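Weekly puzzle thread! Below is a chain. First person to post its structure in token form gets bragging rights.
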Amino acid sequence: MNRINNLFETKKENILSVYFTAGFPNLNDTVEIIQLLEKKGVDLIEIGIPFSDPTADGPTIQRSSETALKNGMNLELLFEQLKNIRESVKYRLF
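Winning reply:
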């Protein structure tokens, strides 16, 4: 069973899911934000990958993506930042 299915099988209510944009507010905040969210009890974390034309997103995510891109965030850097993330957080990261 994958971790998302396991979460919904073992926790039937009050599941807290949080989205944030990688590289926002600062380029190297991504891992620290994930660790803090996990520490505060977030059950599911969605990491937004910033891109230059987020027209389907609302203005808040558009602005965070714009800032993250200006900070230098890109897919290669995000994967580099996340390569050892499971060593510092539990099963909550999906």
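Puzzle host: Confirmed. Bonus trivia for everyone else. The first strand starts at residue 17 and ends at 21.
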